[in-house]
Structure formats: C-alpha cells, structure tokens
Amino acid sequence: MSKKVILVTGGQRSGKSGYAQRLALSLSPNPVYLATSRIWDEEFRKRVERHQRDRGPEWTNIEEEKYLSRHDLTDRVVVIDCVTLWGTNFFFDNQSDVELSLSLLKAEFDKLSRQDAYLIFVTNELGMGGVPIDEVQRKFTDMQGWLNQYIASKADEVVLMVSGIPVKIKE
C-alpha cells in the first residue's frame, strides 16, 4: 500500500463517510476507522456504538479525540472521521483560540501524514451553509475552513461529495 492523503469534503449528509468507507474497503480487507468524536453524553455513546456495529468486524476501530499521530498506522488504510469533530476538540480545549488551535491541528496533521499509510480524511464544508449568528460559531467556521484548506493543499486527492455523488476536484 502506497503512502497517500485523500480529503473527502462536502455538506452534512452528502455521503462523505460512506464514500470514504467504501474506498477504504476497496483498498484493504481490514481498514482502520480512526474516530475523532468526543463522547458528550449517553445518547451519543449509543450512536457511536451503533456506527461501530454497522461498520462490521473487518474494521479496526480506534477512538482518538486529538493526538492521531500517536497511533502507529504504518501500511494501513485509515479513515479519519472526522476533521470537524477533531477540530472541535482542540477549539474547545483552547477556549475558542483560533490561532492556537489551528497551529496545533496543523502540527498534528503534519505528524500523522508523515506515517507511511493511506489516509482518508473526512471533513465538512461548513462555510457553504451561511454565516453563523454567534461569534464562537463564526470563529470555529473560520478555523475549520482554514484547516480544510491546509489539508487540501497537502492532499494527493480531494473529493467533494454532492448529494451522494463524488466529484474529484484534485487528482
């Protein structure tokens, strides 16, 4: 398996995760699912457990809120789902400090992407949904957009999902 970075982006429910998972399974019989979500409450914990069951036993599931690079993913196909939740964890842990959070996220992305692995990042295009009404949401949307741009600039491929249809925008 060759080293590669792919970014899959789009709006909510555009088919990003499904596309990323199908791609991973087409490349490996046992890919890794690197989930970045923080478990906020019991309902969310049940949702995470359901998603894990739905993926099936062929997946290696890793839960990691922030420091993705501490996992050795050498020679693995990995779906990182998702960049938005990963960014949320840094943003809130750093009291909504955009500059600090963005610098830490970029550094962690750089460390992870140096591994000899096939990395498929899933993210949201938050800026396509209009301008948020409150300051914290606007700051987060800005940070997320800048992080997406950074990852896209480093990615070998970028796929935009539109209504379940993958549109390759960088090959």
TrEMBL record:
<comment type="function">
    <text>Catalyzes ATP-dependent phosphorylation of adenosylcobinamide and addition of GMP to adenosylcobinamide phosphate.</text>
</comment>
<comment type="similarity">
    <text>Belongs to the CobU/CobP family.</text>
</comment>
<keyword id="KW-0067">ATP-binding</keyword>
<comment type="pathway">
    <text>Cofactor biosynthesis; adenosylcobalamin biosynthesis; adenosylcobalamin from cob(II)yrinate a,c-diamide: step 6/7.</text>
</comment>
<keyword id="KW-0169">Cobalamin biosynthesis</keyword>
<dbReference type="GO" id="GO:0005525">
    <property type="term" value="F:GTP binding"/>
</dbReference>
<dbReference type="GO" id="GO:0009236">
    <property type="term" value="P:cobalamin biosynthetic process"/>
</dbReference>
<keyword id="KW-0418">Kinase</keyword>
<keyword id="KW-0548">Nucleotidyltransferase</keyword>
<keyword id="KW-0342">GTP-binding</keyword>
<dbReference type="Pfam" id="PF02283">
    <property type="entry name" value="CobU"/>
</dbReference>
<comment type="pathway">
    <text>Cofactor biosynthesis; adenosylcobalamin biosynthesis; adenosylcobalamin from cob(II)yrinate a,c-diamide: step 5/7.</text>
</comment>
<dbReference type="InterPro" id="IPR027417">
    <property type="entry name" value="P-loop_NTPase"/>
</dbReference>
<protein>
    <recommendedName>
        <fullName>Adenosylcobinamide kinase</fullName>
        <ecNumber>2.7.1.156</ecNumber>
        <ecNumber>2.7.7.62</ecNumber>
    </recommendedName>
</protein>
<feature type="binding site">
    <location>
        <begin position="10"/>
        <end position="17"/>
    </location>
    <ligand>
        <name>GTP</name>
    </ligand>
</feature>
<dbReference type="GO" id="GO:0008820">
    <property type="term" value="F:cobinamide phosphate guanylyltransferase activity"/>
</dbReference>
<keyword id="KW-0547">Nucleotide-binding</keyword>
<keyword id="KW-0808">Transferase</keyword>
<feature type="active site" description="GMP-histidine intermediate">
    <location>
        <position position="51"/>
    </location>
</feature>
<dbReference type="GO" id="GO:0043752">
    <property type="term" value="F:adenosylcobinamide kinase activity"/>
</dbReference>
<feature type="binding site">
    <location>
        <begin position="35"/>
        <end position="37"/>
    </location>
    <ligand>
        <name>GTP</name>
    </ligand>
</feature>
<feature type="binding site">
    <location>
        <position position="63"/>
    </location>
    <ligand>
        <name>GTP</name>
    </ligand>
</feature>
<dbReference type="InterPro" id="IPR003203">
    <property type="entry name" value="CobU/CobP"/>
</dbReference>
<feature type="binding site">
    <location>
        <position position="81"/>
    </location>
    <ligand>
        <name>GTP</name>
    </ligand>
</feature>
<dbReference type="GO" id="GO:0005524">
    <property type="term" value="F:ATP binding"/>
</dbReference>
